[in-house]
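Reader question, answered in our methods column.
A reader sent in the components of a multi-part assembly and asked whether the whole thing could be modeled at once rather than chain by chain. We filled in our standard form and ran it. Here is what they sent:
COMPLEX SIZE: two components
ENTRIES:
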Amino acid sequence: MKIIKDTTPAEDGFRMPAEYERHHGCIMIFPERADSWQYGGYAARKAFVQIAEAIAASESVTVCAGAGQYDNARALLPDHIRVVEMSSNDAWARDYAPTFVKNDQGQIRGIDWGFNAWGGLVDGLYFPWDKDNQMARKLCDLLGKDVYDKRDFILEGGSIHVDGEGTCMVTECCLLSKGRNPHLSREEIERVLRQYLNVSKILWLPFGIYNDETNGHIDNICAFTAPGEVVLAWTEDEGDVQYAISRACLAYLEGEADAKGRKLKVHKLPLPKPVTITEEECMGLDACGDEPTRRPGERLAASYVNFYIANDRIVMPGFGDPADREAKEILQGLFPDREVVQIYTRDILIGGGNIHCITQQIPDFY
Amino acid sequence: MKIIKDTTPAEDGFRMPAEYERHHGCIMIFPERADSWQYGGYAARKAFVQIAEAIAASESVTVCAGAGQYDNARALLPDHIRVVEMSSNDAWARDYAPTFVKNDQGQIRGIDWGFNAWGGLVDGLYFPWDKDNQMARKLCDLLGKDVYDKRDFILEGGSIHVDGEGTCMVTECCLLSKGRNPHLSREEIERVLRQYLNVSKILWLPFGIYNDETNGHIDNICAFTAPGEVVLAWTEDEGDVQYAISRACLAYLEGEADAKGRKLKVHKLPLPKPVTITEEECMGLDACGDEPTRRPGERLAASYVNFYIANDRIVMPGFGDPADREAKEILQGLFPDREVVQIYTRDILIGGGNIHCITQQIPDFY
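And here is the structure of the entire assembly that came back:
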């Protein structure tokens, strides 16, 4: 594995493919952090296994497990899913597994962004985050792929979405947050995204999902489903604080065009009714430092937008909400060639994310 | 990775190839155990890096490093050597990386023997050994290869040598030791070796190298250099306790034939003059439990037989002894198509082994 410091993907002819382009496979991390996941991680592990199996029906899956969980991961996951030992601070493959870029010859390389647990000492969610920050490099080494060193720029994979045709979508609330790259202007941040993702247009949605503790990752509120088309998390409930947020995002998207000059076609994806954590669920979580991780009644950032596009499948969250079915039908309509599989993910939502957050695709390569 | 419990390699048409058959690559483990290796592993790491580089000039090398040493391993090793995170109790890849077997279609599988630190609670060298014992399986998973579960049989890779044509060579002192499989008779042990290595003849040398704390591994005293040919560690010094040991082994070998009925051609490989550990070197080692790992003046099991056969190279130990040169010339004569590279390995010898002990070949596969 070569660590590349002196050139950027754009200079070298590499670009980030869209998630709906063909994959080599998918990376996940086995959860064990007891202040993120209920019952010492027990509940989340069951859900992660279901998701890994759903994805593995369509593409190869590698699950990274800490030394102490290796045997358990191996026992719970089927033979055809590879388990590799790798330490981490938590289980968010989207945010710290490498962002992969690809060239016209079909070669891939990784990008190793800096990671600081969604805000570092300003408003990060845990400390330390050193093992997470090592993962991109370790995974590139494991795959035998070279890696761009961009650790001086804080970015999580969940805070960017690309259409594969020159457009990147982010949120202002996240990328301009004080805990990430406060020394860089919006224009300087844009410049890094252009150089590393090899895009020519950045779409800046103003907000993410209400109370999303990542400072509002794009991947929980809006996602490309095809070039020129997105789904946007939506509610018709005027009493919900999310109402104004989704409308502001829609207004922004309707006023913008993508890198190819296309007006964006916005598909509204309903949100479930507000999901809050119960007292019993809170009791299943260890404390994080001096304070409880969550408090009873806290609203969780539930959204159907947090789905994963596998080669022949869409793997999407379900919340036991009447909107589960409608959301599934909408995605099935948008992805007619992929089977939509819905998995009940409350135990993952409690950890602070969903299916897209815990997966990272590896583009197909030669 | 499938774990195979119900059949044996022999039943499935797999056999252990000789080390001089073509390799896919080599596995090593980065040393860090401060009671095995001087100065917190610092001295050994430098030697391991030299050896990894020497082998990597001829075949691909993967180095397993614990989480705490990953960054350091990555910094010390060149780009073309892969580093993967993997926990272990120490760094003896020969003894607990998988023994690989291969079929006529060129597929390979691993064997996961039981490992108990060279004698378990009877006369093992450290406790615990649980991480070492997990490695064979983890490495097969990493490579995407199925693995035979033979954890109910204690065996280290350094205690067997095969000629690739039906013969296996072991030592009585090791395989019949009380700390390994005391419930099995010599015939029952032979039966396991026949089934798992797919051999028809076992050669039982009586002894290993004097004071070899592995209970006398074969790979420190005698090795196949070709079908029908071996090198045997040798001394002409009648005052050395090793004198009688080497003669007893020679007498045994001269009275035996291999699986093909060939008389063995025995090449004597001189030993260096007795190597003992100094007081200063002992002070560089942490204590192991209540007692010092080694005592000043203790004789180390130095032997040139502990070389590694890479695809186009022989990587062999040197001790700064006048015999270094003669041993190198003998091996060069026996392997005319491979370049013999000699590396000064006193810092590895202090840990209790040498180049063969810290390497494990992966046979070439399709």
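What stands out: Chain B touches chain A at residues 1-3, 67, 70-71, 74, 79, 82-87, 131, 134, 137-138, 141-142, 144 (CB under 8 Å). The first strand of chain B starts at residue 3 and ends at 4.
Send us your own complexes using the same form.
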